[in-house]
Each structure stands twice: as C-alpha cells, then as structure tokens.
Design a protein that fits this description.
about 900 residues, 40 helices, elongated, about 0% strand
Length: about 900
Amino acid sequence: MSSATFAERLLRLVDVRRGEGARVLLGFGYLFLIITCYVILKAVRDGLFIAEFGAIKLPWVMHGIAVLAGTCASAYVRLSRDRDLSTVISIVLVFFASNVALFWWFAQQGHTWLFPVLYIWAGVFGVIAPTQVWTLLGTLFTTRQAKRLFGVIGAGGILGGFVGGQLANWLVDLIGAPQLLLLVVGLLLIATVIVTTLRRLGVSSAEAVERSTSPRRLRESLSVISQSRHLRVIAILVFVTAVATQTIDWQFKHVVEQAFETREQYVAFFGKVYSIFSILAFAVQVLLTSRLFRHLGLGASLLILPIAVLAGSIELLIVPSLWAAVMLKGADGTFKHSLDRSCREMMYLPVAAPIRVHAKATIDTVFDRFGDGSAGLLLLLLTAVLGWELTGSLLVNILIVGCWALTACLVRRHYVDELRHALGRPTLRLSGVVSLPEDADTRRVLERVLADGSESEKLGALEIVAENPRLVARETLRAAACADSKAVRRAALAILVSDGDQELPPELADELEQEGQQALVSTIDLLLSTDPEELARHLDSLLGEAGRATKLSSLALMLRWLGPEFEPFGERVFDKLTGADSPIHARRAAAQALALIPRGSPLQQRLGSLLEDPDPAVVSAACESAGRTGRVDLLGRLVELLGRPRTRRGAARGLRALGARIVPQLAPRLLDSSLPSGTRGRLAQLMGEIGTPEAMRGLASGLDADEPGLVDCCLEALSAIRLQRPDLHPLTARQLTGRLRRERDRYERLLAATASLSERAGESPAIELLHEALEERSRSSRRSILRWAGLWAPPADVQRAAEGLEGAIAERRANAIELLDNTLPRAMRQEIVRAFDHERATSRSSPRSADVAAAFAWVIESGDPWLVALALHAARGENVAGLETAASRLAEHRSQPVREEARAWLAEAGWS
C-alpha cells in the first residue's frame, strides 16, 4: 500500500477533510510540544519543591501562582492589543524559552530559592502556553470543524504529556533533574517555528480579529466577561474546576510524600504516573471524545470529569492509600486534558472573534489561577488552621465538586443561547405567515401614517387595514373616524362597522344620524330613477367616490340606520343594485354591504346569485361577505372559487373568515384527488392560518399524500402554525425522524446529481436547464428538511439556522448546524448533521462518467415530473444508454411532458 493511500485512509479515519490537513497537523505538533514541555517542567518542579520543602508548603506557591497569573494576564492583553495573534504567541514562546534557560543557569549554581520560583513560574506557563494554543486553534476552525477535529488535535497534547512524562522518568537518572530544563528550551523554540509557519501559510490570518472593537486592557476584558452570561458561566466553571483539581493535586502529592523520600524518586514517580495518565487520556481523546460529543452533547460531556472526580474522592476518603490517590488523580489526569479540555474550548467558539481571544485569555489565566490561589488559601485554612489535612480536604472538595457539576449543567443552556446570539434575530421565513416582529413593525408604520400622514396616505393605509383590521389598535381607527377629512372618516368608520365595533366615538353620533338621513334620501331617489344617466348619478351619490371602503361605509350606514322595519324596502334597493343593468361598482358595493346585514336576514340569500356574477371583482366581494356572515352552506362554492385565479384571493378571505368551524370539512377535501392540486395546496395554507390543534391534525394527515407538492404545502402550513403555537407537535419524534431521513436521502441524491452534471452544464442547453432545475430542487429540499426539523425544534431556532445555512460565511453555517445539533432529539439531529455537515463535500466531488449516467437514472426514477421530463430531454441529446425500461414505462405517464419526452426518446432509440 502506497504512503499516499495510507495517508488518505488515515485522514479519512480521523475525519479530516480536504483543505484541513495542514492546519490539523501543525496544530497537533504545536500542542504536542507545549504539553511535552509543561509535563517535563511539572515533573522537575514537583520533585525539586517537595524534596526541599514538602507538600505542606504547596498552598503557599499555589497562592503565588494566582497572584502572578493576574499580572501576566494584564501584560498579555496589553501585548496583544496592537499585534497579530501569531506574533504575540511567538514573542511569548521566545520569552518563556529565555526564562527556562535562566532557571537552568541558576539551578547549576545550587540556589534553593529557585525551586518555589520555578514552581510558580511553571504554573503560569501551564496556563498561558496551552491557552495560546487553543486560542489560535479557535481562530482556525468553525464550531462544527472543532467538534470533529479538536479531539484529534487534542490527542497531540495528550501524546505530549506521555512523552514528557517518559522523558522525565528516563532522563532524570542520566542527566539529572536540572538538565531537563535545556530540553524544554529546545522544544519551545521548535514550537515558535511552527507558529511562524502557520503565519507564513496565511492560516492564522483567518482569525480576523477586529482589534478596534476588542478589549484593550485587562479591566475592559473583565467588563466584557461580566456583561455576558455565557462568559460569566464559563468563568465560574473554570474557577470552580481549578479549585477542585488543585485540591486533588495537593491530596495526591500529600499521599505521595508519605511513600517516597528522595527527589529522584519523586521525579521518577511523577514522570511515570503522568505518562500513564497521558496514555489513558490519549485513548479517551481518540476513541471516546468525538463519540461522546456526538451522542451526549456538550452539557453531558462536561459532567463526566466531575462525576469521575467525585467517585475518586469518595474512594480515597474510604481507603486512604497511594493506590486510591493515584485513582483520584488519574480521573483528573485522564479526563481534564482530553474530553474536558475539548469541551472547554468548544464553549468559546460561538463568541465573536474580537471578544473571544481576549476573554479566553483572561478567563484561562486570571480565573483559572485565581481558582488555584483560592484552593491554596482553602488548603491553608484546612491544614494550618483547622488541622484537617487529607480527610477534611476530601469532604470539602466533595461539596466543591457538587458546585462544579451544577455549573456544568448551566453551561449547555448558555452555550445554546450564545449560538442564538451569534446567528442574530431571524429574518428569513420558512412559511407564508408573517412573524410577530414583522407584525409589530407593520403596526408601527400604519399607526404613524394614520396619525401624521396626508389624506391620500391615510386612505392608502386604511385600504391595507381593511384587509386585516387587527393590524392596528381600535383606538387608532376611532381616532381616524374623527379626522377632518370626510373620506378618511368614512373609510375608518367602514372598517369599524364591518368589524362589529359597537363602541363608536360619541362625537360622531350627530354626523351618523345625518349620514343615515342622507342615505335614506339617496336610496329613495335611486328607487325612483328610471333614466340610466340619472340612475348612475344617484348610485354615485349613494356609494361615494373615495374607494371601496367609503362605498362600504355608505351602505353600512344605510342598512344600520334604516333598521329591520325597512327590510322590504331594502330588498328593492338590492334588487336595483344587483340587477343585470347595474354597474359593476354598484354590484360590488352591494356584495360588500351584505356582510353588514344581521345573520338570518332574507337579503343574505342574494349572496348565492352574486357568487355566480360574471365579474370576478363582484364574486370576490361576495366571497368575503359569505365568510363574514358565517354562510357555511356556501363552503363548496368558495372552495371551487379558490381554484380560479381571479377569485382566489376573495375566496381565501371568505374561507378564512369562516374560521375554525370549517376545519372538519376542509380536512377531507385536502386529500380529495378530484380537486386540483393547486386548490388543495391553498386549502392547506388556509388551515395553517386557522392554526387550531384540529387544523394541525388535518394537515398532518396530508403529509402522507403521494403528491410531493401537497406534502410541501402541508409542511409549510404546519410550520406556520408552529410559529404561533410552538407548544404543538403534529408528529411524534419517531415519525419526524423517519420523514427527515427520507428527505435527507433525497437531498443527498439531489446534491450528488447536481455535482455530477456541474462540469457538463455548459455543454448543451438541455443539460444546463436540468442542472438549474436540480439546484432549485436542492434548495427546496433543504428548506423542507428545516421545516421538518421545525415541527419539533423551536421555530425561531430553525429560522436562525435556515438563515445561517443560506449564507456563504463558514462560521455562521457551522453555528447554524451546531444550534440544531443542540436543540433536536438525538436521532433527528443525526439526520440534520449528516445532511448539512457533508453537503459541501458532496457538491464538490469530482464527477465521473459513471456518475453522470447514474445521475440521469436517478432523476428519471425520482418521480418528479418536471425533473423527469428534463432528464429525458437531455438524455436524448447525450445518447445516454440503459433507459429503455424506464422510458417504456413513462410513455404512459399521467404528465403530458413526461409522456412526450419518453415517446420521443423511444422513437429516436428505434423502439416501437
């Protein structure tokens, strides 16, 4: 097997994709060198310090680490203020290397004061150097890449821990503990070269940190952390973790001190156990971390370390022995630098880049070391003041671990909130329903126009409000009904009357009475007129000339003020208005006015004839009136008119006005194949607007239809209901998972077919048209996947994810998938991740001739009439073989374009 093949298989095994190999390899090597240096330093400092001062003095140096870490963090923030991150890292690494060289020189002189200084300095190095690695890695990968690759890269650090421990164990007897410091100097210089290589490759520039908006001082970084709930929780978690693990570290070293005597024994033992812990951590990182992320998620994965530490503390409390201490420290050493470290780095990724670099540096230095210092003070209190030592520290630490676990539980919620914040407020809609924020914006605009606009602007706004009277407050309409303009007053009054408002402004009473008298006079003149010109003049006088709303207002006043005793007189008026020789605007006004007549009036019977009027405008007005007056008996006619282009809108308004009572009758019609598919799709939309649980159940039954178009309409309508009622779930999680899987399979096939034809799209117009159709179907399928997910996940989250996936920014796309991955049940999120995490790789795959033939075959078998017809047409020009059976079967297809193309293909192929 060639080395190239082996490398490809290795990359495939660890899920490293095209374009990621260099970053992964360099990150792996960089972390390997840093952790190797740190473990060597730990073994040297622990051995030298304990041999000289004993474990009882460790709390003092822990406190010193906390104090020095705060100073270093402040200097680090200032250093990185006006410099590129990779430059800052190079400077810090060279500085650390010079420090180690200086420590070696002092050690050669036999200065014992060096040991506590080295202990404190190594503690600061152990925070800043690994933090720099992970900060740089956070700028190189998105959240989804990090979830895949941080486990692989983190394995480099664990491997470094093993190598560092073994080097300390093997070389201490050969060259002595101080000489190991020279080895650290060389490794740090190599790490500097790796960072420089990253910069030269242009990788580190991907961070795009906007220094103008990032914190410039430690105080500013602390202020940013305090203002973010997510960063506050991370800081608390880091602090509590540091207190618990430092206490464990002291307990472990306290027990070790009782078992050995010389500093060489200490260094050799620490080197040996640290290397064993590194092997275990490496196994966890390579074999478990990505799987635990995938199956448990971030929140549950963060709980593994505190649970393991709790078990180890209880064991050491019951059996205080070296073996139990090793088990406790092993739990910390195995999971802290593998799974837990990857989890901690994942928490930062949704944070904006300008904030992330400095906030992370501050948290991982100040709060981490402050936790170490707090642990030192706690241990001083327990040992020097209270005299509890091991047993007392174990009991206290069990309580601390409980706080640790509680904080870890909070992290996931804030992590998801930070993902939402990173994606922003959703503006993309997956359904035809306007979301609440847009409704609020529309209301503000309309109310401002009605308050301060010109007469024409107010009339235009009232025309919009007439379509949906709930768009503005009733008080706004009542104020408009008192406006100076008579046309505005009458239009606003028409809306109030048609919407059943009985609380009209008192100041309009006299004017309404005059309007009623004038309407009565105009009506009598209308009935007495015989000349056509005179009839038209009286109609204009009665109906007004300011538009539909004003005409409706006039007739509303007439009917309300005449009262039921004038009903026979009213019948003669409507006979005149709806006669064959009556103008269209008069018939339309009559149809609108019938909506204001009390239910049960004989005048309403005229709606049936108006629904048969030859003019679509009159029919549409009659449809609305039928809905407003509750004429359920006209439901069949309204459904029929819903299928006609010119009466579609009025019929929809009428059906919508009938409300939830018609859902039991609409649901069976949804699956009635005798109705046109377009009509059934609009019925689905109407049921979505009605939005009751019964409407949701009826729409859910339409999801099993054989027609993809109808399924899409039902799915969109269900999405609309979920926007308003996120507590309702039309399907179970298992049902949704099955449908998600089918749509995901279709989506992947569409992507594969699109990729197969991409390079040949310019060869002929037929293939180019097919390619464009496949791209359009791919986008539609992607929206369907998100709609399916939206039937379970919070609709706002799905909208955010949809908008993030539509963009070209890799980080937003990754955050969108990560948000869905954290808000869906396990089975559903696996389908989502499989669809969107791999779609770019699928779409970029290199097409082969076999792929092109397979693409044609799949498209023809897909069942989509439009795609099938296009594929058959393109296959004729490309002479694609192997389609004889499919073409013969499709020659009798119900779709005319498919039949014609299949028969044409058979004729050209010489088949009878």
